Amino acid sequence: MRIGDVADRAGVSARALRYYEEQGLLESERTPSGQRTYTEAAVERVKLIQQFFAAGLSSRIVLQLLPCVDKGESSPEIFALMATERERITAAMADLAAARDALDEMIEIAHNPTPEHCPALRETPWATYRADEAIVAG
């Protein structure tokens, strides 16, 4: 099967397939003219790779998981690897939640500015001087 056919059936770009090959996630044969050809199983493999990526895993991690898929067996090390990745994603989610909360606070301040948060609302040192000057002149 040619690269365009696999890409269409798997719902990815041909560029993605070339990247998967560069990362060692997918294999192809070459015709005498150098064109890539894939087996029928490549479509399902690409869909699986996409599921791993959708789960937030990097190509480096996916490369470690694929041999287990190919063999149909797992190991405690693989489960530990996936647990570590889950912890990484959970920490990233906490960081994003903190960033969202900080942004919510900034939005609230923008809607309801106070001198504490907005320097433009503070009385400047020279404002008092000008007010005193106006009283003396008046």
TrEMBL record:
Pfam families: MerR_1 (PF13411). It comes from the Bacteria. Keywords: DNA-binding. InterPro entries: DNA-bd_dom_put_sf, MerR-type_HTH_dom, MerR_fam. One of its GO terms (molecular function) is DNA-binding transcription factor activity. The keyword DNA-binding applies. This is MerR family transcriptional regulator.
